[in-house]
Write a structure and sequence with these properties.
alpha+beta, two-stranded antiparallel sheet
Length: about 100
């Protein structure tokens, strides 16, 4: 575990907090734990039923309380639809 300063929303108000996060030895280990975490928590089942639709998936994660940020889903969708991922996809097709 590692403790870091994070911005959390409580009753719609942003505030800095120190929170403990899991620490991993690899991306693969992190991803496996993320999947296990979601699968083991019944509140995320609706999100898991939408894994084929990234926008619906993140909206369901937000609805289930995954993140405190009221704009969590919109921010993730902006990343999906943004130039950085589009360029990364183009670069991987060219390489």
């Amino acid at each position: 575990r590692v403790s870091v300063s994070t911005l959390e929303y409580r009753d719609g108000v942003a505030g800095k907090e120190v929170a403990a996060f899991r620490s991993y030895g690899s991306y693969a280990e992190s991803f496996r734990d993320y999947v296990d975490f979601l699968r083991s928590n019944p509140r995320y089942q609706q999100a898991l039923q939408n894994t084929g639709n990234p926008s619906a998936y993140v909206r369901e994660l937000q609805a289930a309380g995954y993140a405190t940020d009221p704009n969590y889903a919109a921010k993730i969708e902006n990343i999906f639809n943004g130039n950085i991922l589009a360029q990364a996809g183009k670069d991987s097709q060219e390489g």
